[in-house]
């Protein structure tokens, strides 16, 4: 299954770079369809996100330095929330996590659809306590379903905090560094991390990240929004098919 894992990594990496999602949003359902249990897919996805989020944020840093200060604050909250994922896993079933994943993706589609790709109002600074709280809640839920949190964070950044969509995706990928590292630590300590599969997919994802960010920077805002909606709809369809 080595070559399949490499292909999964390339796909997840491209998604991480282009959409700012960390890659887990697409990788988790792919792994579930490939035969992994939901909890196995989550552990692999989290390890992949460590690779793709760090490299992707490095590539994004030249164009989005101004938002990384708030990203660090969000990330602190996300790290605290991500540490809770092994505890959440001990309380709920695989099926519950799959339904939660579907619900989160559906909400994301609705919020992004009704939000403009380029808001007319200027981005304001936000209260640090609010940012930490938002990061914590996103971190708890996201790491429990094997995504970095971007699929929840992007609609909040665009629809509530009025960030431009491309800036929001860069910031969300930076957030994923914190949440995925916390989730990786949590699952490693409890013996739930699949290192072999996660390493292969994570290393392969670096190539996909490079090309994903390159293409994102050349895509117009309206077409970029359409791409995110199409991608989320496909993910929703895959998980609904596998779950129901």
Textual characterization of the structure:
The relative contact order is 0.23. This protein has helices at about 1-20, 25-35, 40-60, 70-80, 85-90, 95-115, 130-145, 150-160, 165-190, 195-215, 220-244. The chain is about 75% helix and about 0% strand. It has one domain. By secondary structure, it is mostly helical. It has 11 helices and no strands. This is Probable membrane transporter protein.
Mean pLDDT: 83
Q: Judging from the principal axes of the Cα atoms, what is the shape?
A: globular
Order of helices and strands: HHHHHHHHHHH
Contiguous runs where pLDDT drops below 50 for at least 5 residues: none
Helical residue percent?
Answer: over 70%
Protein structure class:
mainly alpha
Q: What kind of sheet is the major sheet?
A: none
Number of domains: 1
Number of strands: 0
Strand % is under 5%
* End-to-end separation: 26 Å
Radius of gyration equals 16 Å
Number of helices: 11
């Amino acid at each position: 299954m080595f070559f399949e894992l490499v292909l999964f990594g390339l796909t997840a990496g491209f998604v991480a770079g282009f959409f700012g999602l960390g890659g887990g949003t697409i990788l988790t359902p792919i792994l579930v369809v490939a035969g992994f249990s939901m909890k196995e897919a989550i552990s692999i996805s989290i390890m992949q996100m460590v690779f793709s989020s760090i490299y992707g944020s490095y590539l994004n840093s030249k164009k989005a330095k101004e938002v990384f200060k708030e990203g660090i604050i969000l990330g602190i909250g996300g790290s605290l929330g991500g540490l809770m994922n092994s505890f959440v896993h001990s309380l709920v079933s695989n099926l519950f996590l799959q339904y939660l994943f579907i619900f989160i993706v559906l909400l994301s589609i609705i919020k992004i659809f009704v939000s403009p790709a380029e808001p007319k109002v200027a981005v304001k600074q936000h209260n640090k306590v609010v940012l930490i709280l938002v990061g914590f809640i996103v971190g708890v839920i996201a790491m429990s379903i094997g995504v970095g949190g971007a699929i929840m964070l992007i609609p909040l950044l665009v629809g509530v905090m009025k960030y431009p969509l491309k800036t929001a995706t860069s910031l969300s990928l930076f957030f994923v560094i914190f949440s995925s590292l916390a989730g990786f630590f949590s699952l490693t300590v409890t013996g739930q991390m699949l290192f072999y599969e996660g390493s292969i997919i994570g290393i392969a994802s670096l190539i996909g990240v490079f090309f994903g960010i390159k293409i994102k920077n050349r895509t117009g805002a309206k077409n970029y929004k359409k791409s995110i909606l199409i991608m989320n709809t496909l993910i929703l369809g895959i998980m609904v098919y596998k779950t129901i």
